[in-house]
Specification:
Elements: H1 9-20, H2 29-39, E1 45-48, E2 54-58, E3 65-71, E4 76-82, E5 87-93, E6 105-110, E7 113-120, E8 141-143, H3 149-154, E9 162-164, E10 170-172, E11 176-179, H4 182-200, E12 208-214, H5 222-231, E13 235-243, H6 252-255, E14 265-268, H7 274-286, E15 292-295, H8 303-308, E16 315-323, E17 331-334, H9 335-349
Length: about 350
């Protein structure tokens, strides 16, 4: 018999609203407010910091602290230069892909509101077919319909304005979630669902739980670096996305074999504390939650690294959601994987003991 879905209509309404809201790196606050409003019934209090990381706390008086974490920001662009004839050149804010830009509609965020624009591209008829020039940072431009630089500036656009894509959430074939910013708005969604399940199932944890939605991951784990110093946790379970390596032009021998629909991905890496990871995999096996494994050289490239190497060392682990087409506007994940990440974090929390050190020397 199929397991009952952990997601309900309220969950899905929140997910759609949360994904459709723009929250580029450095400008996450509106998304954080949406996230906090949803989480509010399930936590005792909130912590926020100067740059916008948000933490919902359960059992705030407990000395032993466990973090479950995702990151809130999405990749975007900055206005970098405005030409005399009113075209806008950009630089990255995070790992934005220049090759997908041509013909995309954009939202430029200004003090006067959203200004619409398009990444233009020369027609196929006019290009040198013997030597096609690919999209590059120095040849992609945004056209907002202005005749010159003065008109661009009159519309409220200036150097430093942040630019996002407006692509919104939809579902393919009943169980594939598609949107921009699934990396890693899905993480914030999944940890919020864990808090909801703990509340609805009346589970009392013997420790403080810090449901943490960090900012600025896309430009170097910066939000996690800050908030871990505020929380000073004993344990951190981080969730992010990882690559489905079955899509074209990805070499599985290099990247490993990972696939959407086959379950959460448990990371093996120096930053991952092995006893904590073993607790996660043992829990998955005991609860019959499917999972995959991934080996990561040196760094995980996720907020796991920031937590693990903070405060003299924090026992940390990484549970990833397999995703197709990362850093595009059509990122795709499988509903079953989303639910199984939620289940795996939830069930693992129920196994953690108050004061557990995960030390090999105890």
């Amino acid at each position: 018999m199929a397991k009952k879905s952990v997601l309900n209509k309220k969950s899905m309404d929140f997910l759609e609203k949360y994904l459709n809201n723009a929250a580029p790196t450095g400008y996450e606050w509106d998304g954080q407010k949406i996230w906090m409003d949803y989480l509010r019934p399930y936590v005792d209090e909130f912590i926020t910091d100067t740059y916008g990381s948000a933490v919902g706390v359960i059992n705030p008086k407990a000395k032993y602290k466990v973090v479950i974490e995702g990151h809130a920001d999405e990749i975007s662009w900055y206005v970098n230069y405005i030409s005399d004839n009113g075209l806008i050149y950009v630089i990255r804010n995070g790992g934005s892909d220049h090759q997908i830009a041509p013909s995309k509609i954009v939202n430029i965020h200004t003090k006067k509101g959203i200004v619409k624009g398009v990444f233009g591209w020369p027609a196929i008829h006019t290009r040198n077919k013997a030597k096609e020039e690919p999209p590059k940072l120095d040849n992609i431009t945004i056209d907002i319909g202005a005749k010159d630089k003065a008109e661009v500036e009159k519309m409220g656009v200036h150097v430093g304005c942040v630019i996002t894509y407006p692509d919104e959430f939809h579902i393919l074939n009943k169980d594939k979630f598609v949107c921009r910013a699934l990396d890693n708005r899905m993480g914030g969604f999944m940890i919020a669902e864990v808090a909801r399940l703990l509340h609805e199932n009346k589970k009392k944890l013997p420790f403080g739980l810090y449901v943490t939605n960090s900012v600025q991951e896309e430009i170097g784990l910066r939000g996690a670096e800050m908030i871990t110093q505020t929380i000073k946790p004993n344990v951190a379970i981080v969730t992010d996305v990882t690559h489905d390596t079955t899509t074209p032009m990805i070499e599985s021998k290099k990247e490993g074999h990972l696939e959407i629909g086959l379950g959460p991905v448990v990371a093996y890496a120096p930053a991952v504390q092995q006893k904590l990871r073993d607790l996660i995999t043992d829990t998955a096996e005991a609860k019959k939650i499917p999972f995959q494994r991934s080996a990561l050289s040196r760094a995980t490239g996720t907020d796991t690294d920031a937590f693990a190497y903070s405060n003299g060392g924090v026992a940390s682990a990484l549970i990833s959601l397999p995703l197709r087409y990362m850093h595009t506007t059509v990122e795709m994940v499988h509903k079953d994987d989303v639910e199984n990440v939620i289940r795996l974090i939830y069930e693992t929390l129920l196994k953690i003991k108050d004061g557990e050190t995960f030390s090999y020397f105890d």
